[in-house]
């Protein structure tokens, strides 16, 4: 199928679904400039991770090359779809499944109660978090949950938060395992996040990483009937049975 760039922008959701069945060639001013293709199982854009990271549902490559931050902004601002932008790669976010949302709801309830009345506050997706590795490397993610301790001082004129959360939480899904375990761990570690929780509803585990000076200094995996404990927020605990078997 061949379509022009304007048609793609105006009907992005339609053509993302169509790309699962066939490649779509995008043209601009009569020239073929890009190919929209389904992301095949087992593929990784990072060759050194290809053997260890296996995405099990389609993702989509919207550009035949890495996209610029400005291209990401233009795409996301003109679409009702949700995207993340990590190291030049654009990721279409799939709608979460029931188990994912149940775990998130239980976890947020615990966080909300614990942080009530404190300066730091938990926030839920969809909520864009902009993280910079450098002046030339801007990334935008939507963690499932985050804890922000500097909200008021880092709101821009458009009411968007532009700081770095103290704690990030990602709940794994079939489509996000590789990105959350590899790419986001590295991104959060290198941009000043202090603590990262990877919640695995498949194995009913929580893996917590503590970052300092852009490196992992501690990590622990909690399972079965254990209580996951925050490194940064003393006293914040989560009973695994309460979120995986409510």
Would you mind describing this structure in some detail?
By secondary structure, this protein is of the alpha+beta class. The chain folds into 2 domains: 2-38 and 58-92, no CATH class; 98-244, tt1808, chain A, CATH 3.90.1570. It contains 6 helices and 16 strands. The chain has helices at 5-10, 12-18, 69-77, 98-115, 177-190, 240-244, and strands at residues 2-4, 24-28, 31-38, 60-61, 83-86, 89-92, 121-124, 129-134, 137-141, 145-148, 167-171, 195-200, 205-212, 215-223, 227-229, 237-239. The strands form 5 sheets. A 6-stranded mixed β-sheet has the order 7-10-11-12-13-14, with helices on both faces. Strands 1-2-3-4 form a 4-stranded mixed β-sheet. The longest helix has 18 residues, at 98-115. 26% of the residues are buried. The model is unreliable at 40-61 (pLDDT under 50).
Q: What's the end-to-end separation, in Å? A: 48 Å
Anisotropy-based shape: globular
Largest beta-sheet characterization: 6 strands, mixed
Strand order of the largest sheet: 7-10-11-12-13-14
In the CATH hierarchy, the architecture of the largest domain is Alpha-Beta Complex
Structural class: alpha+beta
The total number of structural domains is: 2
Q: How many β strands by DSSP? A: 16
Task: Average the pLDDT over all residues and give the rounded result.
Answer: 85
CATH hierarchy class name of the largest domain: Alpha Beta
Task: Based on the model shown, name its key terms.
2 domains; four-stranded mixed β-sheet; alpha+beta; 246 residues
């Amino acid at each position: 199928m061949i379509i022009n760039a304007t048609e793609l922008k105006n009907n992005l959701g339609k053509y993302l679904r169509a790309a699962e069945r066939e490649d779509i060639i995008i043209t601009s001013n009569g020239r073929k400039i890009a190919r929209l293709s389904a992301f095949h199982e087992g593929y990784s854009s990072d060759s050194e991770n290809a053997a260890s990271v296996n995405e099990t549902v389609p993702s989509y490559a919207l550009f035949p090359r890495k996209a610029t931050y400005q291209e990401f902004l233009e795409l996301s601002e003109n679409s009702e779809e949700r995207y993340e932008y990590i190291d030049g790669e654009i990721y279409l976010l799939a709608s979460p499944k029931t188990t994912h949302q149940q775990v998130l709801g239980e976890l947020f309830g615990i966080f909300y109660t614990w942080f009530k009345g404190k300066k730091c506050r938990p926030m839920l997706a969809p909520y864009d978090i902009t993280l910079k590795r450098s002046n030339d490397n801007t990334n935008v993610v939507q963690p499932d949950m985050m804890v922000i301790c500097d909200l008021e001082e880092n709101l821009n004129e458009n009411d968007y938060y532009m700081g770095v959360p103290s704690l990030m939480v990602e709940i794994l899904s079939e489509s996000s395992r590789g990105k959350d375990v590899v790419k986001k761990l590295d991104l959060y570690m290198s941009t000043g996040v202090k603590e990262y929780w990877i919640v695995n509803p498949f194995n009913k585990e929580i893996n917590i990483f503590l970052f300092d000076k852009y490196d992992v200094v501690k990590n622990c995996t909690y399972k079965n009937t254990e209580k996951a404990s925050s490194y940064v927020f003393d006293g914040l605990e989560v009973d695994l049975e309460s979120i995986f078997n409510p």
